[in-house]
């Protein structure tokens, strides 16, 4: 039988006198805890690109309308829980996410301005090792109402009566007030090409809508307006905004516009945005622009300008006495 005795260094066995210090026991215990922790971490690793799953795959797809026209610069998001990455469609409307971790993800598009989804705008996918998942989105452009630049919806408070006040009498003649150019406050009579003074009721008869179709790096702006000034000369402009503004909400000229001088639809020279109304004040036409204006910026307002003297002024500064804004179309 082995006999044991205690001393200050630990437990000593009389035969063959083996020493087991208490410190050694503690070290072994903590080593075991560390090993278990590492094993658990390895088995429950968190992948920032995908949910739990094996391998690497690819996610690709497109954003097009029902006619197959591509919409470039559309924002596409690939998300897994709170983690996501973004890309934009190319000029052919295609997008591609490479090296996507296997598992469940969600693909979502941010709709271009004034469009709606024909297919769902968000879809769940499952990525497998060495496989490609294809997600094609189909969208539809919407008609956008053209609002009269008067009353609750105004880009500029430029429509006045002969005394420089807001007109209220349907039969009173209208004037356009200088807002930017000297002399400020100058009133210019708004007349038809044959010299008739336009009244408030005639001005307020204008109505209609615009619709934009993108096709790669071009846009077609379809214009359908009526009640415009008969035989009047009009131009159409791109007032890009860096934030969304609802119809009638005030626009801060110093901070909300992307460009100091708003570009014309079509050529930068302003030679391709000119339209003349018919004798009954109707405009039914299309204009073309060299980008997808529905994905260029965060928001867009298209002002429709009437040229009082019948002359246009190109793509530069808008001279106050020669024009006034009659209609506004908000693309949001």
From TrEMBL:
It comes from the Bacteria. The keyword Membrane applies. The chain crosses the membrane at residues 20-40. GO terms for molecular function: carboxypeptidase activity. Gene3D superfamilies: Carboxypeptidase-like, regulatory domain. SUPFAM superfamilies: Carboxypeptidase regulatory domain-like (SSF49464). Keywords: Carboxypeptidase, Hydrolase, Membrane, Protease, Transmembrane, Transmembrane helix. This is Carboxypeptidase regulatory-like domain-containing protein.
């Amino acid at each position: 039988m082995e006999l044991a005795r205690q001393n200050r260094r630990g437990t000593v066995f009389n035969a063959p006198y083996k020493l087991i210090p208490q410190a050694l026991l503690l070290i072994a215990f903590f080593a075991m805890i560390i090993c278990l922790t590492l094993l658990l971490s390895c088995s429950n690793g968190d992948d920032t690109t995908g949910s739990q799953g094996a391998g690497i795959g690819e996610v690709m797809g497109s954003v097009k309308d029902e006619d197959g026209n591509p919409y470039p610069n559309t924002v596409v998001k690939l998300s897994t829980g709170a983690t996501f990455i973004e890309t934009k469609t190319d000029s052919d409307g295609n997008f591609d996410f490479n090296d996507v971790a296997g598992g469940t993800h969600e693909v979502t598009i941010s709709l271009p301005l004034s469009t709606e989804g024909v297919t769902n705008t968000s879809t769940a996918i499952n990525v497998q090792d060495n496989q490609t998942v294809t997600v094609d989105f189909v969208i539809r452009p919407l008609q956008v109402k053209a609002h009269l630049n008067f009353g609750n919806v105004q880009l500029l408070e430029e429509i006045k009566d002969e005394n420089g006040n807001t007109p209220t009498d349907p039969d009173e003649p209208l004037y356009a007030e200088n807002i930017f150019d000297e002399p400020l406050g100058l009133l210019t009579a708004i007349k038809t090409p044959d010299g008739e003074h336009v009244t408030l009721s005639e001005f307020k008869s204008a109505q209609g809508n615009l619709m934009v179709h993108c096709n790669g790096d071009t846009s077609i702006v379809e214009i359908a307006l009526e009640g415009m000034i008969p035989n009047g000369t009009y131009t159409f402009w791109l007032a890009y905004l860096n934030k969304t503004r609802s119809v009638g909400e005030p626009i801060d000229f110093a901070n909300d516009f992307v460009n100091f001088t708003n570009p014309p639809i079509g050529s930068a020279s302003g030679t391709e945005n000119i339209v003349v109304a018919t004798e009954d004040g109707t405009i039914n036409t299309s204009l073309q622009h060299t980008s997808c204006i529905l994905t260029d910026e965060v928001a867009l307002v298209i002002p429709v300008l009437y040229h009082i003297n019948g002359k246009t002024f190109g793509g530069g500064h808008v001279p106050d006495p020669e024009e006034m804004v009659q209609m506004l179309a908000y693309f949001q």
